[in-house]
Amino acid sequence: MATSDVKLIGAWASPFVIRALIALKVKSISYEFLQETFGSKSKLLLQSNPIHKKIPVLIHADKPICESLIIVQYIDEVWTSGPTILPSDPYDRAIARFWAAYIDDKWFPCLIGIVRGQLEGEAKETVIQQMSAGLVLLEEAFEKCSEGKGYFGGEKIGYLDIALGSFLGWINVTENMIGMKVIDEAKTPCLVGWAERFCADSAVKEVMPEIEKLEEVAKLLQANV
């Protein structure tokens, strides 16, 4: 299938956009990246995602697809010639989707609360504990999903790897902000090794932002709270 008609509306620092970028790289799909300006929304974005008005939006053959995890699934289903992203087994696929939803609905709010600098004192400590506890649960999920292999998806990067791995840069920013590791050898030894392998993969290295640049974005987020 021709790939010259693939466009991605997004911003390089967004972990949700990074998900789509990694999926495109995994499948070796050529695409045009349409960068949004921080703090504003382009006319194309508003036209393409009039409901949520959020990035990312994948445009394929002039048809928009919204929401990062839906985009990853769409890419996997449309471009079948490349490596598969979602598990082939229906149960494994359901489990991967469950944990991806957990990451977005339960775990991510803790991370972004810290990044934005909205929390102080006891409230901040509580959220840090919740974020760390969530990663311990994901450590357990990794042990089951990976079946002793290098990734949630087994021997290669899969759906759940992309869902969590897209946040690794922001996890590093958070660790620097709070002065402690949340992915560490003591509590999440499997995730430590997984994070190193994930970030070393060629599909990830090309799109994973530098920590220093993310820290600059974090300052902008804090200034706009």
UniProtKB/TrEMBL annotation:
One of its GO terms (biological process) is toxin catabolic process. It holds the Pfam family GST_N. CDD domains: GST_C_Tau, GST_N_Tau. Its EC number is 2.5.1.18. GO terms for molecular function: glutathione transferase activity. GO terms for cellular component: cytoplasm. This is glutathione transferase. It comes from Tetracentron sinense.
